[in-house]
Write a structure and sequence with these properties.
Elements lengths: L26 E8 L15 E9 L8 E4 L9
Antiparallel strand pairs: 1-2, 2-3
Length: about 80
């Protein structure tokens, strides 16, 4: 269980923690992350359960050499 305001970070090698962007065209994308999507947890309000993560993909689609740029979130900077 996490305290309110806490977060959990998982490495990309764990199942469900990564996705393939190889064939996406270069550009800016937003990853949508939703907490408690099936409403299994009781919450006083659910209007703040969705967040968007800014991601810039560089390099030619299909290439083995691509780069991903993100912006820091709070104390986490994985970019």
């Amino acid at each position: 269980m996490l305290d309110a305001g806490s977060g959990d970070t998982y490495a990309q090698f764990r199942q469900g923690q990564s996705f393939n962007v190889r064939d996406l065209e270069p550009g800016v994308y937003y990853i949508e992350v939703t907490a408690n999507p099936e409403h299994r947890l009781h919450e006083s309000r659910a209007g703040n359960n969705t967040a968007y993560r800014w991601v810039r993909i560089k390099g030619k689609a299909g290439s083995e050499t691509r780069s991903i740029q993100t912006r820091p979130v709070g104390l986490i900077d994985i970019g």
